[in-house]
Amino acid sequence: MFNDLDLYNKKYKKKILNSIQKTANENNFIFGNNVKKLERKLSKFTGSKYVCTVGSGTDALLISLLSLNLKKGAEIIIPSFSWLSVVEVVLLLKLKPIFVDVNKENFNLDIYKIKKLITKKTRAVISTSLFGRSCDLNKLKKLLPKNIKLIEDGAQNFGSIFGKNSLNIADISCTSFFPSKNLGSFGDGGAIFTNDNFIYKKIVMLRNHGQKLYSVTSTGPGLNSRLGSIQAGILLEKLKVLNKKLDNQIKLYKKYQIFFSKLKIVGFPLTRNHPRIKDAVSTFNLIVRNRRKLIKIFNKKNIPYKIYYPRPLYKQYQLKNKIRLKNTEFLCKSIISLPFNDLSIKRFNFIKSQLKEIITKNKKIFFEKKI
Predict the structure, then answer these.
(1) Same domain, yes or no: 227 and 251
(2) The whole model's pTM is what?
(3) How many domains does the chain have?
(4) pLDDT, tens digit, for every residue of 284-294?
(5) What CATH number is attached to the domain comprising 76?
């Protein structure tokens, strides 16, 4: 397995099953007590004034854009290196994606390249906080004119701190509760965070067919994107132990970092030692010289891996463009993700011993100097 998620879920199985049973007894599966309670807890955890749970992280992005009442063809600046959802929601709404390159240090969008991309048609910027690291959202927000909204795609960095909780910086912030995320449910789920009451009211209606709560009429179309009470109960139990989980992931990341540093291998973001910054790292990604050869070795040794991400977003969905962004192209060819998340000590030690042997015999696969 790529991560030992089964071990993590097993620890809290009894409490989670009790929560499911309680919800079943209440027979209130949509907008039940657990949903309301979870939204209150998430508000307190992030510091965000308003929280609206939805059906998935992708829905969170889609509803966020819908809440802005954007006209067809409006330009949305997005990172070129990210998960499909970021460009998918833009295309679904007939908006125009404008791709910005990322940096090789932490794989997030390069905020200093955004200014040149802003036009009269720009209406929003979506910043994906990749692999648990937030970019400087405060600086990015200051760079943007007031008529351009900043949306954070925080699907991968729930729990990150950048001065304050990262989901409480942008105009609208989104996260995902997909099972493998930092705060993961037993299925799909997501949430939207904002301090803007006007946007919040629109989001609440958009997730429920455009209706106000408990109403049977609607002023406009919306989606059926509601987090169920059972999933909310699971998330409430996991939220109680989230900080412990994040601390364990940070420790694991540092173990990888120490291991590679001792062998003089570079090609991964370093942990940031700053009292007001906490990277809720969710994967360990390594840039290598020869990924194809490394994958062959991994397959022989039964070492699991993932590729996040093999293709730039501007090459997805048969988009017809001639874009070629240097850092994005490089990362798509060079990045590989090692087993992480709730990895047991036994499995980590096995992987470490295998990696040491691979590096000793095949050092040319890896980078030893600054990339």
Answers:
(1) no
(2) 0.94
(3) 2
(4) 999 999 999 99
(5) 3.40.640.10
